[in-house]
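User: Second chain of the day. Same drill as before.
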Amino acid sequence: ATVPKITVISRKAYGGAYDVMSSKHLRGDANYVWPGAEIVVMGAKGAVEIIFRGKDVEKHTAEYTDRFANPMVAAQRGYIDDVIEPHDTCCIICDDLRLLRSKKVDTIPRKHSNIPL
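Assistant: Same format as last time:
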């Protein structure tokens, strides 16, 4: 897209919903996350019930949340650009919009168009 694609994750981004909401995987321009947000494949309780087959769910849920359900894991893997404070969000988005004002995306010319169906 030639319009800027900026994402701010404020709370939870689980699985496929995270992928299709302008993530880095789909060529999003900027992805930010607030400190308390979670970016994981699925919720902690559901993942723990599957992995540990329902044994010690509360204990393992806390461990899973501490280990995986925080924005630092996604930041280390390069899925997000920065962990930002909520009060800085507006300024950062405005700066990105100024930077991306003249965004150009080169497209590959197609040999054939879609046939009418």
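The helical segments are 15-20, 44-51, 57-67, 71-76, 89-99.

User: Great, on to the next one.
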